[in-house]
Amino acid sequence: MTGRWANLALAVLVPTATASGFLMFLFGSGSPVWPVAVFHGAAALAIIVLVPWKRRVVQRGLARVTRPGRATSVALIWVVLVALSSGLAHVVGLSLQGTSITTMQLHVTAGILATVVTVVHTRQRPVRVRRVDQSRRALLSAGLVLGVAGVATAVVQGIGYIATGSGTRRATGSLRLASSRVDAIPSTSWLFDAVPALDAEAYRLTTTVAGATRTWSRTELAAFHDEVTAVLDCTGGWWTEQTWSGMRVARLVGSGVTTIVVTSDTGYQRRLPLTQDLLLATAVGGSPLDAGHGAPVRLVVPGRRGYHWVKWVTSVEVETSPWWLEPPLPLR
Fold this sequence. Notes:
Number of helices: 8
Shape: elongated
Radius of gyration: 24 Å
Helix content: 40-55%
Oligomer: single chain
Strand content: 15-25%
């Protein structure tokens, strides 16, 4: 294997690892996430397998002080190292729960940066595919790298299983919170959403069905005492199972509805298929929600990742268009 071949492989593997990680954000639970998780881990570990060949390329490049793209090369080394080390740390249970940034958040941020820097680096130092790169020897090299990466993935996952224990890790990679108490649930929101100041007594939820609107107070919603026990699986890398109570969304909008749009006081919204287990929660674990966890009312969406669980809900609107007609991840 040559250093040039390693460059080609890395130009594919780094974006592939990021893309597969992105797909893991889209799966809440169920079998589809397992193959994606394995593929993501194998792609990341394949990068490590290529280190011996890439090291020689790096040493030659860094020795040429005036060579274009030198700063980009150094930046790429560091962001890849951070992405890999934080990912491995999370697998073995070092999640940094309770800190300002978890290992999963660090891993995701570094992974995105690594892809961006890889694209820049590839443009600065393009490596063109040659006929020899499609030879039998090149294919055998690729097979060897993938084989070693596959074995390494199994070993790392085994170590992670032993380190974290049974029932701690979900298929998404999230780790169970150390405590099941309600006050131990982190207060998180998507990107730049800030906790709004809402008066529980003055609060009103607006529903729109077939053009007709109605408002509901928090007291009216809480009076139904509908309950759903569901896992909140946050993309920050943690999960917790709690019993949420309030009012099922189906009670608000009636039967025959396929798509709803749920909007927060902050403007954040998600479009979802209406199911019987969707709940507008006013309490969790027998206690009223606090502001950080979405009070006065938040949406509970069993089986989906935390960014679908809209906080500070102020409106629910029925739509006729398909629920999947929106970006897979929120854009704000």
